[in-house]
Design a protein that fits this description.
Its EC number is 5.6.2.1. The chain is α+β, with helices and mostly antiparallel strands and about 850 residues long. The chain is built from 24 helices and 31 strands. It has 7 domains: about 5-50 and about 85-155, Rossmann fold (3-Layer(aba) Sandwich), CATH 3.40.50.140; about 185-215 and about 490-595, Topoisomerase I, domain 2, CATH 1.10.460; about 220-290 and about 420-480, Distorted Sandwich (Topoisomerase I, domain 3); about 295-415, Topoisomerase I, domain 4 (Orthogonal Bundle); about 610-685; about 685-800, no CATH class; about 805-855, DNA polymerase, domain 1 (Orthogonal Bundle), CATH 1.10.150. About 35% of the residues lie in helices and about 20% in strands. It binds one DNA strand of 8 nucleotides through β5, α3, α5 and α24.
DNA sequence: GCAAGGTC
């Protein structure tokens, strides 16, 4: 019999702590080993991994891209190496002394593989220790207790299925990525990547763009009129909008008229009549069922509808999860676990800002939560835990997302809404008009979940045979629109439908496409490079841009998991296919590389150089700043400056005067359109500097009677040169208040890029400078009373320092204020603070949140 | 430095 403590291994620290808490009845203590938390009580220890702590890679001799032919990677071996050294070391130390080991990683395929990786690390140091496996789909008292009472063994076949995926992905991804990058001579940070998931995702975006390019708009007409009831002694007249329709050749009802003559004929018929006769009134009641619980995709979609990018929504959800306010945000599940008691959870909100809504839901006699189609074993759907944050502990964004999760839970336990649909058809001179009204009879879940549109369209109660006055007849000429680009959440939903990526990676894949220079803007638009990569793949490696690759791999993995195939069977077959793909690639290497190179250049090209006619390109200087330079360099040294903030994106719009494409600077919330860089540079040179006072560094001070120093430069013994401050426009488009003696004197103050500067007659007494206003002639925006530029800049700096804490994600204005009360005034003091002490001193802030902030501050 | 998948 083996002695020593039982070691429990989970997939993440958070799960380790909660399981320790459940199994120990709250008595577990936290110890640190190599910086890793170990929860200890009685004879037990629980340690959390951080997902995969080992990663797959090729042997070192394959690491230099230039030394190795990409095709050689197909037959290279694949090794596993620790990627999280501290955790691996802690696990080995714990395993050496363990009397038994329990693998308690997540209950899904990847969890089985992570469990097997832990198993192998344990075996390296302890050959005999018994290892078991427990499975549970949510970390609740009942499930965890039951799982530990009935341990099972690791499923090595399921883990092997995951390993096959790792090998196939690495082999295809690395070999093709290196091949494309080498062919196009792109070896730096701008390498050209492809992979099983990013490939089809990119093709989705490129295909949609091809549809948009090929789209041929068609003209059509729509006809509308207002109808008004007669009213009566005690009834008011009621007016509503109706639309012309007809029955087309297929016998279906149509509103769009494709023929101008038909449209005009109908228009005339309607115009000649004074009134319409109601011929049909149909009324029906529709039940509008509340939405299913949130899985990751639906959460991202809902957050997207209130303005959060997929990336941002997930990042906030992760923070809310680690702080303990919501459940695990990466899940496919849309069915609540059995032991979630909706009443108990609703009761947790009494006394909170959600109290009224929670109580109204508790008043229902019966509560039956909705359920979606996906029921999985990984984690429960995303829902609030019932531990409530005080609103001040969260930033505005965090609060908004938290409220969304709370309200979604509310919606899933709320009654359905009912609508009354009213359809009215009226005839006018042989033509038909119709109106579809909808009225909300019972708000149901809409009362607690305001994120869906629940607006009504009121059509009055009319009766068959009733006469209605016709007015305001209008014939609208329209055009069919091209299909719309995918938005981020639509992309994620489509990826899910196609079966590519996972709940935890889909949003990262989209981010990767941005980072690789394949897509730009939001909704994303493909670059020329992206089109070229998709074209090249379609021609020679079709599988890498097809969802089929994942579908096939899923089948193969299922076969491995069922014991019907082996890892070697699957990877060998994949190797064979990839060898074949490489035959085509190698033959066309040069043409392919050329095409990719040309496309990359096209993405950076603005238009012709005014000096030599070659292409002007966006380039990066040695200091990392962007500028426009000539392709003919060094023969042609023509350049134009670009703004210093953001990354340049070249727009479709072209400046008519210079034939150069306009430039947009991407800088998150500070993104702006710079326009034609030649126009901006010319405008700056034409704009006269406007002197507003003396330079505080080298100008004439109030006591300007001081003697000159006599060396002929006009400088006084105090260092004066008579420099003046002027409002200037720089060639890169930015504006500032600077010294007229630049570059000898570099004194400057920033000014906003947009709006016109107005110099007022009011003067700042302290600095003897005029107060400035910024006005916006082309918009309704109120003028900005900027004041004295020196005072303004000082205030700006003070604000920057004052809100330094808010630069950390998760700290909002209110929280920063509270931290300052506890003498945490800047990032440095936050980093040095003791989390437990802060938690004790600051209301609504837990030690775990402080630790998160500290980690982010590093 | 390549992929995709975990997690922070």
């Amino acid at each position: 019999m083996t002695s020593g403590p039982e070691l429990i291994v989970t997939e993440k620290d958070n799960a380790a702590r909660r399981i320790a808490d459940i199994l120990s009845g709250g008595t577990a203590e936290t110890e640190r080993m190599n910086g890793v938390n170990v929860y200890t009580w009685g004879g037990k220890r629980v340690v959390g991994l951080s997902g995969h702590v080992v990663g797959v890679d090729f042997p070192a001799e394959y690491s230099d891209w230039r030394d190795v032919e990409p095709v050689e990677l197909i037959d290279a071996s694949v090794e596993k190496r620790p990627t999280q050294e501290n955790i691996v070391r802690a696990l080995r130390r714990l395993a050496r002394k363990a009397g038994s080991v329990v693998i308690a990683t997540d209950y899904d395929r990847e969890g089985e593989l992570i469990g097997k990786e832990a198993y192998e690390l344990v075996r390296e140091v302890n050959e005999d220790v018994p290892v078991s496996r427990v499975r549970f789909s949510s970390i609740t008292d009942r499930e965890v207790t039951e799982a530990f009472a009935n341990p099972d063994s690791l499923d090595f076949d399921l883990a092997a299925a995951g390993e096959a995926r790792q090998i196939v992905d690495l082999m295809w991804g690395a070999a093709l990525t290196r091949f494309l990058s080498l062919s196009a001579r792109q070896l730096g940070e701008d390498f050209i990547s492809v992979g099983r998931v990013q490939g089809p995702t990119l093709k989705l975006i490129v295909d949609r763009e091809r549809e948009i390019d090929a789209f041929d708009p068609e003209d059509y007409w729509e006809l509308y009129a207002d109808l008004t009831t007669a009213g009566g002694a005690d009834e008011a007249e009621e007016k509503f909008e109706a639309q012309y329709f007809y029955i087309d050749d297929d016998g279906t009802e149509a509103e769009r008229v494709w023929d101008q003559t038909q449209a005009e004929t109908a228009h005339m018929a309607l115009a000649s009549a004074q009134s319409a006769t109601v011929t049909d009134v149909r009324r029906r009641t529709r039940t509008d069922t509340p939405p299913a619980p949130f899985n990751t995709t639906q959460f991202i979609r809902a957050a997207g509808s209130i303005g959060y990018s997929a990336q941002r929504a997930m990042s906030i959800a992760e923070d809310l999860y680690t702080a303990g306010y919501i459940t695990y945000p990466r899940t496919d599940n849309t069915v609540y676990p059995e032991d979630l008691d909706p009443r108990e959870l609703l009761e947790a909100f009494s006394g909170s800002t959600f109290a009224d809504d929670a109580e109204s839901l508790l008043d229902q006699e019966e509560i039956e939560p909705t359920a979606g189609d996906e029921e999985t074993t990984d984690h429960p759907p995303i829902h609030p835990t019932g531990e409530l944050p005080s609103p001040s502990a969260l930033s505005d964004d965090e609060w908004e997302v938290y409220e969304l999760v709370v309200r979604r839970f509310f919606a899933t336990v709320a009654p359905p809404a009912t609508w009354e649909h009213l359809r009215v058809v009226a005839e006018v001179g042989g033509e038909s008009l119709k109106a579809n009204g909808k009225r909300l009879l019972e708000p149901g879940y809409h009362a607690v979940y305001p994120y869906y549109n629940s607006s009504e369209n009121i059509v009055p109660d009319v009766e068959e045979g009733e006469e209605l006055a016709v007015s305001n007849l209008r014939l609208e000429e329209k055009q069919t629109q091209p299909p719309r680009r995918y938005g981020q959440s639509r992309l994620i939903e489509t990826m899910e439908q196609m079966g590519i990526g996972t709940k935890a990676t889909r949003h990262d894949v989209i981010q990767k496409l941005y980072d690789r220079g394949y897509i730009e803007s939001d909704p994303p638009r493909p670059t020329r490079l992206a089109r070229a990569v998709v074209e090249a793949s379609e021609e020679f490696a079709d599988l890498i841009v097809s969802e089929e690759m994942t579908a096939q791999l899923e089948q193969d993995m299922a076969a491995i998991a069922e014991g019907k195939a082996t890892l070697d069977d699957v990877t060998e077959e994949s190797r064979e296919y990839l060898r074949h793909v490489f035959e085509g690639l190698m033959e066309n290497r040069e043409a392919l590389g050329d095409h990719l190179q040309k496309s990359m250049k096209a993405d950076k090209t603005l238009g012709p150089c005014p000096e030599c006619g070659d292409d002007l390109l966006v380039r990066k200087s040695r200091h990392g700043s962007y500028f426009v330079g000539c392709n003919g360099y060094p023969d042609c040294t023509y350049t134009l400056p670009l703004p210093s903030t953001g990354r340049p994106l070249i727009l479709e719009e072209t400046c008519e005067e210079h034939g150069l494409r306009e430039v947009k600077m991407l800088a998150g919330r500070k993104t702006f359109v710079h326009g034609c860089p030649q126009c901006k540079a010319d405008a700056a040179e034409e704009e006269e500097d406007l002197v507003i006072g003396a330079c505080p560094e080298c100008g004439e001070s109030a006591a300007s009677e001081t003697p000159r120093d006599g060396d002929g430069d006009g400088e006084t013994v105090d260092g004066e040169h008579g420099g003046e401050l002027a409002i200037k426009r720089l060639r890169n488009g930015s504006r500032l208040v600077g010294c007229t003696r630049y570059p000898d004197c570099e004194y400057s103050l920033p000014l906003p890029r947009r709006g016109d500067v107005e110099v007022t007659d009011d003067r700042c007494e302290e600095h003897d400078l005029p107060e400035l206003h910024i006005v916006y002639p082309d918009s309704d925006r109120e003028p900005w009373e900027l004041g004295c530029p020196i005072c303004n800049y000082r205030e700006y700096q003070a604000r920057q320092n004052g809100s330094e804490l808010e630069t950390i994600e998760g700290i909002g204005e209110k929280t920063a204020e509270k931290l300052k009360m506890a003498e945490i005034t800047d990032v440095e003091s936050l980093k040095n603070a003791d989390p437990d002490e802060i938690a004790a001193r600051v209301d609504g802030v837990g030690a775990e949140r402080v630790r998160q902030w500290q980690a982010k501050a590093d």
